[in-house]
Amino acid sequence: MTPHLKFDFTFPRNYQVKTLESAPLAHPLEKLYHYPTELEEGDRSGVYLRVVPQHGLAWSGFFALGFESDQVVNAVCSCPDPDSLCGLAWTSERLSWEGISITEISGQKLCGLGWDALTDKQVSFEVDLRTGRHTGGARPGDQPEHS
Q1: Contact between residue 60 and residue 53 where contact means Cβ atoms under 8 Å apart
Q2: Could you give phi then psi for residue 33, rounded to 5 degrees?
C-alpha cells in the first residue's frame, strides 16, 4: 500500500515527480537518496519517488513518513526556485494562541514568538528543524500549574 502523499505544484517547476510502488531497480546513472539520511527505527515506512529534471540526470529517493493522522501532512511541493522541490517532513504542535513571529533561523533551530492569551504576553519558542519538536510557546488548553 502506498502511503498518502500530497503533491502541491503551485510554483512552476522544471522536473516531474512520480510515486514508485517499490524500491527502484539499480541503475548505474541514477542515484538513490534516503531522507532523512539517518533513519530511526520508526522511520522505516515511507515512499519512493523518482524525480526527472528537464536538465540533468533523474534520481530516486526514499522519503520516511511520519505517522498517519489528520494532524500530519506528508507532502512534496514546488518552490520559488523551479529547479528545487520541498518536502514537508513534520508539523509541530501548536505554538501560539494566535499568530507567530519567526525571529531567527540558525543551524538546526528556528526561534520565534507566540501569543499566550492566559498571560496576555508574547512567549518565546524554539523548534528543532530536524524533528519538529519544540520547547516553549503557548497553546490553548495549557493551564498554568497552581500550588
Answers
A1: no
A2: -110, 155
What's the whole-model pTM score?
0.58
Q: Mind listing the pLDDT tens digit for each residue in 99-111? A: 888 898 888 888 9
Report the C-alpha gap between 12 and 6 in whole angstroms: 17
Q: Secondary structure of 87-101 in the HEC alphabet?
A: EECCCCCCCCCCCEE
Expressed in angstroms, the distance from the first to the final Cα of the chain is 51
Q: Closest Cα to residue 89, out of 107, 62, 111?
A: 62
* Amino acid at site 62: F
The DSSP code for 43 is: G
Q: Delimit the domains of the chain by residue range.
A: 6-88, 92-147
The string of pLDDT tens digits covering residues 46-69 is: 889 999 999 999 999 988 776 565
For the purposes of burial, counting CB atoms within 10 Å of the CB of 61, is it exposed (0-12), middle (13-18) or buried (19 or more)?
Answer: buried
